[in-house]
Structure formats: structure tokens, C-alpha cells
């Protein structure tokens, strides 16, 4: 059994300014993003977290560092968790009321070098499959599209069919992999908290004081 909590990074300057970016060293967390990450870290203290992996992109790495400081763990960079490669869209502003993905599917725009949906699915499932079985939880800090692609893989959804999946900043998506059965379960989707109901399902991963 493998339990991974996929955390979307906290609010960043790119979120506030409506900028798409896969740059590694740009757009740090805002003060609100740091507070969001601290709140998520406090929620994660309910679980026996053994390792934290993170995208190398600054906003994700800062989020992972804040979580790691709370849990006493050092984040491990894994490129498979990185932001979607955005091609021509990199560092471009976007209109939240006229989404670029819908324009793309309607043929209203062309985007060169945009990372395909299937590519994100492959690298995210490869990451999940590489996590060793353990009685402790793995936290993986990533980005909206890669986490959404993994959910899409589990639910058999394409990029546009998964358009409505909501993953707020610093939210948690909890996925369990039963390797002996070849089964994947989504226990939580874009949640800001780890609920008591969820904790009751995850007995082996809970710190004893929370049982």
C-alpha cells in the first residue's frame, strides 16, 4: 500500500498576476501563499509523513520547505512533479474569463511546444509507481495541471473532460495505491483540510494521538 498526499503549491505571484509560467526560479509565494502552506502543514501533522518530494519550481519548493519545516523533513526535488511545460504560453498573462484551453480546443489559438496531457499523465503515474510501500505517508508538492492529469488518469478523463476539477492553492489530493490489486483510490480531492472522516479511513497512516 502506498499513500501519497499531492499538494498544490500555495498562492504565488504568478497566480495573483494571472501569469502562466513553468520557469524554475520565478514567481515566489505571496504572503498569503506562505500562510496557506503553513495551514496545510498543520493538517499534515495528523498523518505519519515519512518523506516530502517537490517540483523544482520555486513556488512549489517554497511550499514544500514550509511543510518540511513543520514536519522536520527536508524536501527532495523530483522533476516529474514539475509544472506543465507551457511552450509559447510561458510567462504570458491569461484571461480567467476566456480560458486558453477552450480557445485551444476550439482552434482559436495555436500553442507550440505545449506539453501534452498524456506526457503529464505518464510522468505523474511514474512518480506514484516509484514510491515504495510503507506505513508512512509521502507528500508530493506539485502544480495544478500535473495533479489534475494524474486524477484524469485514474478517472479516465482527457484534458478538457477534466476541465472542471478544482484544486485550490495549497489544497490536498490524497491518493492510495494498492499495488497487489493494481487499484488506485482518490480519498480526497483538492481539500484544504484532512477531515475526521478521512482519518477514519486511514488508520495505519495516522499518528497515534489522532486515533
Automatic annotation (TrEMBL):
Pfam families: His_Phos_1
Active site: 9, 83
Enzyme superclass (EC): isomerase
Enzyme Commission number: 5.4.2.11
Entry-linked InterPro entries: dPGM_arch, His_Pase_superF_clade-1, His_PPase_superfam, PGM_Phosphatase
GO molecular-function term, one example from the UniProt record: phosphoglycerate mutase activity
Top-rank taxon, per record: Archaea
Keyword set includes S-adenosyl-L-methionine: no
Gene Ontology CC: cytoplasm
Alphabetical keyword list: Isomerase
SUPFAM superfamilies (alphabetical): Phosphoglycerate mutase-like (SSF53254)
Residues engaged in binding substrate: 8-15, 59
Name of the protein described by the UniProt record: Phosphoglycerate mutase
Lineage start: Archaea, Thermoproteota, Thermoprotei, Sulfolobales, Sulfolobaceae
